[in-house]
Write a structure and sequence with these properties.
The complex is a heterodimer of chains A (147) and B (48). Chain A is α+β, with helices and mostly antiparallel strands. Chain A contains four helices and eight strands, in the order αααβββββαβββ. Chain A has an eight-stranded antiparallel sheet with strand order 1-2-3-5-4-6-7-8, with helices on one face. Chain A starts with a helix and ends in a 22-residue tail after the last strand. With 48 residues, chain B is mainly alpha-helical. Helix content of chain B is 44%, strand content 0%. Chain B has two helices and no strands. Chain B has helices at residues 3-13, 27-36. The two termini of chain B are 22 Å apart. The chains are: A alpha+beta (147), B mainly alpha (48). At the A-B interface, α1 and α4 of A face α1 of B.
Chain lengths: 147, 48
């Protein structure tokens, strides 16, 4: 069960991501009128609950699945906004979550060729290719950055 | 896994994340979503 503050912080993080932003603790504190140390505690609580992932160095939001705060090999553009996803799964998740038509782009890790998917009316157009999973499900959260 | 299978899973996996009342999903509920999208077998088991 998340605390009320953690839930408010979590929701603000996701609102920021949806709008194409990158949530930061200082911004969250200002926006929610919550003291900075309380926001940091809430971030830690959310991280422990696997509700978000904090950057291990800065302790700022790194991932709010399916969104990434940092550039990745998976870009998603739609509805006049753009995002980075953490993996192929997340890249497919963003258009579903936000509810927009989108273009997803990445690079084949084998041949380095560009791979593009289009999402229209909540359908994946021309669903081609395969996705490789390296980590078994029971180990995903052992090192979510690697996963 | 074919991309089409992953797409099926992605359609349900993130449901509710934008809701102010979202709560972490149970492991059993997540396993059910995986199975429903065809992600079955020991590799997809969330249990340690």
């Amino acid at each position: 069960m998340l605390s009320d503050i953690a839930q408010r912080v979590r929701h603000a993080i996701y609102r920021s991501y949806v709008e194409g932003g990158i949530p930061k603790s200082e911004m969250l504190s200002r926006q929610l009128h919550i003291p900075a140390d309380a926001v940091r505690s809430a971030l830690q609580e959310l991280h422990a609950a696997h509700a978000i992932v904090l950057d291990p160095r800065t302790r700022e939001p790194w991932m709010g699945l399916p969104f990434s705060s940092v550039p990745t090999a998976f870009s998603v553009e739609g509805g006049g906004r753009s995002w980075f996803a953490n993996c192929a799964w997340d890249a497919f998740g963003i258009p579903n979550l936000v509810g927009v038509d989108a273009v997803i782009a990445t690079t084949c890790p084998d041949c380095e060729g560009q791979i593009v998917y289009r999402v229209e009316n909540r359908n994946l157009v021309d669903a081609h290719g395969v996705v490789h999973f390296a980590v078994p499900a029971a180990k995903w959260w052992d090192d979510i950055g690697f996963t | 896994m074919p991309a089409s299978g992953l797409w099926t899973l992605a359609q349900s996996w993130f449901d509710g994340r934008l809701s102010p009342d979202w709560k972490p999903r149970s492991r059993a509920a997540s396993q059910k979503l995986l199975s429903a999208a065809g992600f079955v077998g020991s590799f997809w088991s969330l249990a340690d």
